[in-house]
Amino acid sequence: MLVFSQSLISGLLIGGVYALIGIGLTIIFGVMRIINFAHGDIMMIGMYLTYNLFTLAGIDPFVSVAITIPIMFLFGALLQKVFINRVLNALPQNQILLTIGLGLIMSNTMMLIFTSDYQILTTSYSSSSFRLFHISISQPLAISFVITAGITALLYWFFMKTDTGQAIRATAQDRDAAQLMGINVKRMSIIAFGLGSSLAGTAGALISPTYYIFPQIGSTFTLKAFVITVLGGMGSILGATLGGILIGVAESMGAVYISSGWKDVVVFVLFLLVLVFKPSGLLGKSRA
Amino acid sequence: MAINTKENKAAGGSFITTGTVLSLLALLALASVPSVVSSPYTLHLMILLFLSTIMGQSWNLIGGYTGQYSVGHAAYFGAGAYTTMILLQHFQIAPWYGALAGMGVALVVGLVVGSICFRLRGPYFVLASIAVAEILRLSAMNLKEITNGAEGILATDLPPFSIGGTVITDFSTKVPFYYIGLGLVVLTVVVTVAVQHSKLGYYFQAIREDQDAAHSLGINLSLYKNLALGLSAVLTSLAGSFYAIYVGFVDPPTVLGLDISVQIVLICIIGGIGTIYGPVVGSLVLVPLSEGLRSNLIASAIFETGIVSESSPVGNFLKENLAHAHALIYGILVVVVILFMPDGVLGFAKKLVSKRKGGRA
User: Fold this and answer.
1) Which class is A2-123+140-277 in CATH?
2) Fewer CB within 10 Å, N or C, chain A?
3) B310 — pLDDT class (breaks 50, 70, 90)
C-alpha cells in the first residue's frame, strides 16, 4: 500500500509538469490545427536556458522561471511569425514536416554549442525530500508542482476572463467566424504559439533540477506531449491537464510494478489503445 | 490538397519512355563503376547513395503514392537490420537468409501497424506510426538477451557467399556491397514502376487523392492501404538488412530511432514525393551534403580507414559528437523545401523549366 501511494504521489507530481507540456501543445493545436513536432525541442531550449542562468548567473531554477517565460514566449512568437504562419493553409503533412525540421535545427544547434554531453543542474535541494504520512516527497518536484498549479490557474483565468483569452478561444472554435467578428487571427496565432512555447519552456525549467539535460531530450517529450494531448482530447486544456497527470501516474506505476525500462512502453501502448478505441480522447468532442 | 498532389501525379507518369532508356544507360554506367573507380571512399559514398535511394523509394510506395505519411519506418528498417544480425550472431545464419526472415518480420510488423493505424487519418496516423516504432525501439533496448540492449550487436565476420561450392565473394572489399546495393535499387525502382502502372497503383493514388471518393467507388481502403504498407515495409527491411551487413553494427538508436524514420521521409520530401526520381534526387542532395559536412569537420579520416574504426574509443567519441550534428543540414533543408519548394527539388526544377519555356508544359 505504501509503495502504491508512494508511486501515485510521485506520478501526480511529475504529471503536473507533463500537463504543462501538454497544455502548450494543445493550445497550439487548438488555435492552428498544427501538431507541433518541435514541442519537446522548445522544452529542451527552456532547460538549457535555465541551466545556463543557473551556472553562469547563479539564478535558482525556480526563480529563473520568471525570465524563462517571457523569453520563450518571444521565441515562440518569432517561430510563428517567421515559419508557421506561412504553412497555415498547407497540407497537414507539410506542416508536420516543417515543425520536425525546426526541431532538428534546434536540437542540433544546441548540440553544436553545448555538445551532446549530459548536463546536471545540481541545486542544494536537488535530491532532498520531506516526509508526509510516511511518503517521501521530492522537494524540487513538490515546488515545481506548486508552480505548475499556479500557472495552470492563471491560464484558466486568462482564457476565461480576459479579452485576448476569449479571442483566442474564439479563433480555436472557428477561425473564419472569428476573423469575421473582427478578431486579428494572425495575432492570436502568434500569441497562441508564444504561449505554447513559454509553457513548454517553463516545463523544461521546472524539471531541469531533476532530469538530465541534453540536446536530444526533446523527441521523448514531444512524443509524451502527443500522448498527453491525444489522451485528453486534442485542443482541450482540461483534457491535457488530466492527460498529463494520468501519464505521470501510469509511468510511475509502470516503473514500480513492471520495470523502469518498460515504463515508456506502457505509455505508448496506452496511447495506441486510446487512438484505436477513443481517438477523440477522454474529454474531447468527436472529430468532424 | 488537390493542387499539390495533382502535380505529383503528373510528374510520376510523364517521362517514362525516354526515362526507361536513360535508366538503362545509367544502370550500365553504374554497373561499370567498380571496374573504373578503385577508391573505397567513392564506393562507400555510392553505397550510401544506394541505401538512401532504397529507403526513400520504399517509403514512397506508402507515403508518396498512397498518401499515408508513415513517420515510423524505422520500425521496418530496424526489423530487417535486427533480424539479420540476430540470426547471424546467435545462429550463424547467413545474412541473405536473414534478410528474407527480416522481410517476414517486417511484413508482420507492418500488418500489425496497419490494423491499428489505418483506422486513423492525417495527424493521428502519423502519431500512431511513430508510437509503434518507439515501442519497437524500447523493446530492443530492454530485451537484452536477444538484442544485447543499448550495446547493440557487432557482427564479427560475414560468411563468404558461394553458390554450389564456388565462392563468389568473401566481402573483403566494398565491391560486393556496391553490387548488392545497386541490385536493391533496381529492385525497388522496378517494383515501384510496376506498381505505378498497375491497377494497384491507380488504387493507391485514388486513395491518396481522396479517401472517401475512392471508398465510394468500391476500393477496399484497408486492403489496399495494408498492401501498400506491406510492400513498403518489406522493401524497407531489405534496406535495413543491407545496412546491417554493410556497417556490421546495429543498436537501437541508429536503426530504430525516430531520426531514421524522419530521414526516410526527408529523402522523398526533398526530392519530391510520389515520383520515381524523387528519392534518387533526394539522395543525391542529402547524401553528399551530409557526408561532406561530416568529413569536412573531422570524420573523413575515419571513413577512409573504413567503418571498423568507428567502434574504437576514439571513433565512438567522434561518432557521438558528430553523427547527429550532420542532421542540422537535414533540418535546414526540410524547412527550406517546405517553405519554398513544396513539391521537392524535382518539382521546383520542373517549374523553373516550364516557366522558362513560357507557361506550363
Assistant:
1) mainly alpha
2) C
3) low
